[in-house]
Design a protein that fits this description.
2 copies of one chain form a homodimer.
Chain A lengths: L2 E10 L15 E13 L2 E8 L8 H14 L15 H8 L12 H18 L4 H9 L7 E7 L9 H14 L4 E4 L5 H15 L5 E4 L6 H11 L6 E3 L7 H10 L4 E3 L6 H10 L8 E2 L9 H13 L14 H10 L4 E3 L16 E2 L2 E3 L12 H11 L1
Parallel strand pairs in A: 4-5, 4-10, 5-6, 6-7, 7-8, 8-9
Antiparallel strand pairs in A: 1-2, 2-3, 4-12, 11-12
Chain lengths: ~400, ~400
């Protein structure tokens, strides 16, 4: 039983989106196919993943370092103690050989994407959906039937009117979502507040709306926005400043009573330790949004979750970044607060299974073995070609 | 006046070295040649750099993102206000377009290496050694004639005896160095202390010896080493633990009176802010060792230096990591505490100009325009071929 090949290709996202800080016009993602010699339903099991959104494709590091380390490791060293399946923790350890400590972001996206593709294979070999396998291993066997999902929307685009923005949010609610997120920081504060107010008219209450500044603000602007936003009692205020400026985050937290959120730009468990230790993030109140395929994968995410629980955090505060089938399975499997959704955004890479239904804010899960990319026809066409 | 081409190639270091945490057997570095249309001495000016040591080659990101952004920018937008030379700050800003905040290590080595190659060209265009150009711009015109250098040595290798280690250290002193560094953490504490004691016999005093744990230790081991090492009054104890575990670093600092050192694994100014804010690092006492070509380059390094000075730090506490001609020029140009040296290590990439002389612990500087790679025959042969 062994991993026969691991293939990677870089695919452009072809997105015209922009947030307050940057646009996605050059953005690419690495699609990975991990091919095993295990046969299920008459064909070799292949695990798939992609490197989520916001960080560029990283195939060169995969091909130069992480794939050869896995393919040259003794196959038996990559199996779990039963010998019936692969052991993601062992594969992670093999990938981390000869890597210098620190600077995790230099390798965490490449490692994490391969590791999540391995989990897809592991779940398929176990003939289980990944969310069920994760629930058994990491959530006391509590199997979710659906996951709370909110829409990451409200992007800026040229020529957009307030009515356009209201229409977008109305569409999300009509689809079945109950909470939306919108960008802030791309316009002056007074204009951003006007955008916020019209969206609030549509969604009905601050607890159904989050805002996202994408780390743009320096101290003065962050505190000005915090002061202006606080009265709205929003679900959360996301990335008000540089995601590593823990001192400023702690200062903002003392001025902003409603929940804050961050984490998609933290790539190691140690960075999350620093957030809760120095960043003023409040257990039982604030939100943490690590993106597992970008932060060395699911084994490392389990370590981050365990560290947070040791520090008094509840899983309901965790919303993995990504808005894709991977973060959905992880949110369901670990029993987290919920997942993000990007309907109609990021081309073939956003969104969930074609037959997934959103109802009263909760997205249905499928029984497909693995992560469930096979239920996303256009994305699966890209993936299948890689394994052919 | 424009940048005509930027070329990159990955070169294996072919090093058999190992520290307590990892070996360099797979290590590569990216060599960069930045070709301009400016003619000096009858030939186009070419700037060179490589990505220092310890992080792998990163040419794919250069070719996909950073080089095209520079080559497609309007040439006039990359010039300084005089129009007579390139402006590294502008070129840095162009490279950072469409890059998401945080996760600096994902791009800082690629960006920094190109940026340092640009500085080599800028100094050659100005017909000055880089250290002199930097002294004028960043150190009030105080030109150094030489730089304090210590040897980063004392590596572990199979079959090594204590006599081998003493011989190595004696060679360094005989060459003209007055301070050496050795690895710790690769053996049990009692054996490491024995190594330390024999080296101390050779070098004569703790102020002439530093030790480096390469971030290996967890809390218990770090505190045990701190307790055991403190009586020796060493020059510094480097990377006692994970370089991002600021809470543990602060705890170690309360138990270890002599100087501590870290920084080669911090890739952003914000990480260094966190070190001095939360890591317990003591201004006027401890050491910071950021590696400029790995941390987005010299413009960003100047911002880090300015931030540290604002926080009460003196430049004498700064020793850039690297042990190469780039960190030497930067240490000289900014008037820092000194530089590292790796004689006979890291193949063609360690060491300084072939005609450089070390005397009483200080390395002589040359008048060659630019960084001075032209004085390192074997390294320059690799670089020149890239520009041919």
């Amino acid at each position: 039983m062994r991993i026969v090949d691991i293939r990677e290709t870089a695919v452009p996202l072809k997105s015209k989106l922009a947030n307050s800080s940057f646009d996605f016009s050059e953005m690419t993602t690495s699609v990975v196919a991990l091919i095993t010699d295990v046969v299920r339903d008459g064909a070799p099991v292949v695990g798939y993943a992609f490197n989520s959104t916001g960080r560029y494709a990283c195939g060169a590091a995969m091909r130069a370092r992480f794939i050869p380390r896995i393919l040259t490791a003794p196959p038996s060293s990559l199996l779990d103690s039963s010998g019936d399946n692969f052991d993601p923790a062992q594969v992670l350890a093999v990938m981390q050989q000869r890597e210098k400590i620190g600077g995790d972001a230099e390798r965490s996206v490449a490692i994490g994407t391969i590791e999540v593709a391995l989990w897809d294979a592991v779940a398929k070999i176990a003939r289980q959906p990944l969310h069920r396998l994760l629930a058994e291993r990491h959530n006391g066997g509590r199997i979710s039937q659906s996951v709370f999902c909110y829409v990451g929307g409200g992007w800026y685009w040229p020529g957009q009117t307030l009515d356009d923005l209201k229409d977008e949010m109305r569409r999300h609610l009509d689809t079945g979502y109950t909470m939306v997120k919108m960008k802030v920081g791309g316009l002056p504060l007074d204009q951003d507040l006007r955008r916020l107010e019209v969206v609030l008219e549509v969604v009905g209450g601050g607890d159904r709306l989050a805002v996202d500044a994408n780390g743009k603000f320096g101290r003065d602007e962050a505190l000005a926005y915090a002061k202006a936003l606080a009265p709205f009692g929003l679900r959360w205020f996301e990335e008000p400043c540089c995601p590593l400026d823990f001192a400023l985050m702690a200062e903002i937290a003392t001025h902003y009573a409603p929940p804050l959120a961050t984490g998609e730009n933290l790539y190691s468990t140690q960075d999350v330790v620093n957030l809760v230790r120095f960043g003023g993030w409040r257990a039982g109140h604030d939100i943490i949004q690590v993106d597992p395929p970008q932060a060395s994968g699911i084994v490392q995410y389990a370590r981050t979750v365990a560290m947070l629980e040791d520090n008094g955090w509840n899983r309901s505060a965790l919303f993995p970044h990504g808005g894709n089938q991977m973060s959905l399975a992880i949110a369901a499997g670990f029993g987290l607060g919920g997942a993000e959704s990007y309907p109609g955004v990021f081309g073939d890479f956003g969104g969930f299974a074609d037959d997934a239904r959103i109802e009263n804010g909760r997205l249905s899960l499928s029984d497909r073995p693995g992560i469930g990319f096979e239920g996303q026809a256009r994305l699966y066409a890209i993936m299948r070609e890689l394994a052919a």
